[in-house]
Amino acid sequence: MLDRDTWEAVTAMFAARRRGRPTSYLLSSLIFCGRCGHGLTGQPRAGCYPDGERHRTYFCHRCKGVAIDMRFADATVEAAVKTRLADPRHAEHLARQDEAARDERERIRADIARAEQTRTRLADRLGRGEIIDEMFDTANAALRARLTRLHEQLAEVETPAPLSAVAAADVEREWDEGNLHDRRALVRRAFPKLTILPATGRGRSAISADRFAWDGVG
Q1: Which of 21, 70, 143, 213 lies in disulfide reach of 56, CB 3.0 to 4.6 Å?
Q2: SS in 3 state form for the chain?
């Protein structure tokens, strides 16, 4: 099994070996459906753009109720990312977020260490015959479930360090010179919960800036 970023990178690599422009989707799984909350993914659709390239769209495969044109979405998000990350106030906000996340990571890691120590002590007591198998199994199952939850919580706050002031001021160059992976990382940093609202006009792929809920609020 491959994660989506790896799958898209491999797809782009093989597409680049063929004639024509490689297919890549900047915002796949980075923008979310305003109806069901599922991540939108890129797909081709009927028709072509004026330059002859096939039309592409981001589409919700869960509820099938939200879609938006790929080129429009990519261009709109690119401009918004450059604006937000170049704003010193946002860099300061990211720094505060990272500090809070760092404290939370330390707390969770301490809880994980205590739970692991408890499991080790239980195993030692079982080995010495101080507790029976049934008691060990019950306690160990509870600890295993707790550790699973703690590791899930840790994954949620495992965020990269915030952009420095220098990087934020030069974000346009980072975007323009970066590859697909670099640009996706910038999108994640600027808009962790970017939602696309259903079209209010004719057609599911209606082009309107009002359809972007930049911080996930519809």
Answers
A1: 70
A2: CCCHHHHHHHHHHHHHCCCCCCCCCCCCCCEEECCCCCECEEEEEEEECCCCCEEEEEECCCCCCCEEEHHHHHHHHHHHHHHHHCCHHHHHHHHHHHHHHHHHHHHHHHHHHHHHHHHHHHHHHHHCCCCCHHHHHHHHHHHHHHHHHHHHHHHHCCCCCCCCHHHHHCHHHHHHHCCHHHHHHHHHHHCCCEEECCCCCCCCCCCCHHHEECCCCC
- Give the position of tokens 């979405």: 73
